[in-house]
Amino acid sequence: MGFFQGIKGKGVFILVNLYTVLFLFLKGNVVLLAFLASIGLTLLILGCALAQYNWWPTFVIIFYVLCPIPLAIGRRCTSDSGYGMRDSSPCADLMWFITSVIVISSFGLPAVMCRAAVIHAGSMGFIMAANVVIFTTITIYFMTFGSDDSLPSF
Amino acid sequence: MFEPVFFYLSTSSATRRTDYRTMFDCGNCCQNFELGERFNRNTIASIVAGVIFAIGWWIIIDSTCQYSTQADFNKVYYIIGAVGTIALILVNSVSNAQVRGDAYGDSCVGQVGARIILFIAFLLAFGSLIGGAWVLFGYYIPYKSSDKIYPGIAIFCQNLAIFISTVILKFGRKEDLGY
């Protein structure tokens, strides 16, 4: 594991260790990805379909669909930049910015709906859990399948 | 013996930051560069700035959902947030290299144009921050009862969040100088 040398800070080391372990565990594991995605969507549907809940929270699906688009564009940006090893072009930074706006929006929408008394607090809890699971799924997808080179990269 | 001091004093802060980084890399920058890129400072700064920016706008959406009448939340106060967002886009559209004057190639604004854009953008950013504070402390706190004060707090927090996001996005990212 030659690329572990020279890392600054223990926190980064632990995080990278976790990600590498996760990557090795999930290498090529499409079934687990599909399972996680179905769990997430089940939580979302539960949050809408139980008693006294209504179907307003399904609008977070918009954010699920929008979330991978900037990441895919960002990947195209950095591979076409002709700067060699530099990976942090402003285009990629903009795409990360937009992605994090979308992710926070998918958490903000149920929270705002709950505070405006459109949905119940239990429904909001289900939707937040569904968000976490589905964004984990998207992250794992991009870590294991999205890149062409052998090392995992965002 | 005094060369490092002279070097430190004579270089600009951006190159100094870059030299600090290469100093830390122990000479073999290829090996830890791939790892350093994955969690590199630019990405983290962009993510944090995006999070704070989104929180700012969702605070104002929350306040609008709860206090939707014109008397409680005058719709004209959206302008403050909109100007703050425009300022964020403008501040981050000129790079440090353009302001310093040594950008490669021929951009349509020169060094002077880049400085003017940066100046106006920071004017707008600070203006929106001051506007948000003014609305809260000049209108909502003196003239509203304590249960109707949340829209004022929301406007202030929104503009504060957008401003912090602007600053993080501008100064948290580092552009390398092609070493």
Automatic annotation (TrEMBL), chain A:
Q: Where in the cell is it found?
A: Membrane
Main localisation:
membrane
Q: Does the keyword Transmembrane apply?
A: yes
User: Which positions, given as ranges, span the membrane?
Assistant: 7-26, 32-50, 55-74, 94-113, 125-144
**What is one cellular component GO term in this UniProt entry?**
endosome
A biological process (GO) of this protein is:
late endosome to vacuole transport via multivesicular body sorting pathway
Q: What membrane topology does the annotation report for this chain?
A: Multi-pass membrane protein
Write down the superkingdom of origin: Eukaryota
Q: Tell me the keywords, alphabetical order.
A: Membrane, Transmembrane, Transmembrane helix
A Pfam family hit? Vps55
Q: Which family does it belong to?
A: Belongs to the OB-RGRP/VPS55 family.
Q: What is this protein called?
A: Vacuolar protein sorting 55
Provenance organism: Adineta ricciae
From TrEMBL, chain B:
- TM ranges are 43-61, 76-95, 116-137, 149-169
Superkingdom per UniProt: Eukaryota
Check the record and name the Pfam families matching this protein.
UPF0220 (PF05255)
Protein keywords: Membrane, Transmembrane, Transmembrane helix
Question: Topology versus the membrane, per the UniProt entry?
Answer: Multi-pass membrane protein
Q: What is its main location?
A: membrane
Q: Where in the cell is it found?
A: Membrane
InterPro entries in the cross-refs: UPF0220 (IPR007919)
Q: Which PANTHER family match?
A: SMALL MEMBRANE PROTEIN-RELATED
Protein's UniProt name: Transmembrane protein 50A
